[in-house]
Design a protein that fits this description.
The chain has 483 residues and is α+β, with helices and mostly antiparallel strands. It is built from 14 helices and 19 strands. The strands form 3 sheets. The protein has a 9-stranded mixed beta sheet, with helices on both faces. This is ACT domain-containing protein ACR.
Length: 483
């Protein structure tokens, strides 16, 4: 007896691409603009795709000078004007290939681009061989040093660590391994011990309330997990944003509410002020978020990351910069399809965006220190800093072969600026094999945030909000009232 199975065309699986085209098209143009590279992305739309594309560009240290985004009707269209970290067009063919492949597959699991990524990010695969640990809580002078010392006592080697401090809150992501084997730590009992010890360190911080009582840090300050492969820097930075958001760094700490900080000088000559405003376009059910602040690298990643993690969808956006100032405009709705309906919702988004803009960069002296790597190195360095009255307000620590590369932003224990010469004098007290020791002026935190001042748009700035309002008004003039 012969059985005839139904015939399936082998090209059937490719039918959607043959009808509608590929799910994502990427065009990298080095000819249209004289001073920058233009990247155009057309893709089937999905929630979070803009953040994924911006992550790809940010992860290779591209500066986004200008961008236009539209994602209505199920299709995502975006144009980016970018430069590399040296201010030039993208000329490295490996980087161009990575951008093509990474953005084209943002809708898929990134296994398909790891081989290409390895050529561009050689440290990413190292992180997959270690255990990730996340910490969040109330900050205090010397806390990062205490965390480092606790991990050494627990026989953990710190391979890499990143810590942000903002509004008296701390978020830290560290990559650790076993001291003796340098393997990931996967024993559940030992991981529990690590979490308990670090939780005790974090909970030693108490936050005084205006009534004089004290309130312990919130639960679940510490979480450990074995990293998946291919972790990159923007994954870490997004997690730091999420941790800071969860610990409430968008609110001033209670002790600051008791005694207002000293006033900053008025005026905007130095471009420090951050201005965020939100208005609704009721005709189109959008909320229009407008941001004006000092321009810096990774700014678009920070704002898009925060809007996405707050469960808002970006439908249109316009990004520009002029004379060192950045101008961003986002048309958003909540994932439930509604615009921001209350002043409370608007104020919450404004505060969270202000915090996202400010928390990455720090006022303070920047210490760049490279040394021969060894067990306990980070603990020893931060202990000397703490004993000399220096507090770490941000840290980026990496291991490169036999060398440890550390960058610290430092203030004194009262949060004041410190003299660079004083930081340089601390070097002689460090019992480490220093390869490089350099003290620099740090960045600034963007100054005092204000949400009430009107935005001053730069000459030639294209505002989607103004264009939409103009279109609505033009249509409205054609309506004939019905009696």
């Amino acid at each position: 007896m012969m059985v005839c199975w139904p015939y399936f065309d082998p090209e059937f699986d490719n039918l959607p691409d043959r009808i509608f085209g590929p799910p994502c098209r990427v065009c990298i143009d080095n000819d249209s603009m004289e001073e920058c590279t233009v990247i155009k992305v057309d893709s089937v739309n999905k929630q979070g795709i803009l953040l994924e594309v911006v992550q790809v560009l940010t992860n290779i240290n591209l500066t986004i000078l200008k961008s236009y985004i539209s994602s209505d009707a199920g299709w995502f269209m975006d144009v980016f004007h970018v430069k590399d970290e040296h201010g030039n067009k993208i000329s490295d063919q490996n980087v161009i290939n990575y951008i093509h492949q990474a953005i084209s597959t943002v809708r898929e699991i990134e296994n398909t681009v790891r081989a290409c990524r390895h050529d561009v990010f050689k440290n990413s695969d190292q992180l997959s061989e270690h255990t990730a640990i996340e910490m969040r809580g109330t900050d205090r002078p010397g806390l990062f040093s205490e965390i480092s010392a606790a991990l050494v006592d627990l026989h953990c080697n710190i391979v890499e660590a990143h810590a942000w401090s903002h509004n008296a809150r701390l978020a830290c992501v560290a990559y650790i391994s076993d001291q003796s084997t340098d393997n990931p730590i996967d024993d559940p009992h030992r991981l529990t011990n690590i979490e308990d010890r670090l939780t005790t360190v974090l909970r030693a911080t108490t936050t005084p309330t205006p009534t004089g009582s004290s309130e312990p840090a919130s639960p679940k300050e510490v979480k450990t997990a074995e990293l998946g492969e291919g972790t990159n820097m923007t994954d870490v930075e997004r997690r730091l944003h999420q941790l800071m958001l969860s610990v409430g760094d968008f609110d001033r700490p209670p002790f600051e509410l008791m005694a207002p900080p000293p006033p900053r000088p008025d005026g905007d000559e130095d471009g420090r002020k951050t201005i965020v405003s939100i208005e609704n376009c009721d005709e189109k059910w959008y909320s229009i978020v407008s941001i004006q602040c000092k321009d810096r690298p990774r700014l678009m990643f920070d704002t898009v990351c925060t809007i996405t993690d707050m469960q808002y969808v970006i439908f249109h956006a316009s990004i520009s910069s002029h004379d060192g100032r950045a101008f961003q405009e986002y048309f958003i709705r909540h994932v439930d399809g509604y615009a921001l309906s209350t002043e409370t919702d608007k104020d919450n988004v404004i505060k969270c965006l202000e915090a996202a803009i400010e928390r990455r960069v720090c006022e303070g002296v920047r210490l760049e220190l490279s040394a021969e790597n060894r067990v306990g190195l980070l603990s020893d360095i931060t202990r000397v800093l703490r004993e000399n009255g220096l507090s770490v307000v941000r840290a980026d620590v990496k291991t490169q072969g036999e060398k440890a590369v550390n960058a610290f932003y430092l203030k004194d224990i009262l949060g004041n600026e410190v003299d660079k010469r004083y930081v340089e004098s601390v070097k002689k007290e460090m019992d480490v094999d220093v390869i490089d020791f350099e003290v620099k002026d740090g960045g600034d935190s963007g100054g005092t945030c204000q949400s009430s001042s009107p935005l001053q748009k730069p000459p030639g700035f294209f505002s989607l909000g103004d264009a939409l309002k103009s279109q609505i008004q033009r249509i409205s003039h054609n309506f004939i009232p019905i009696n």
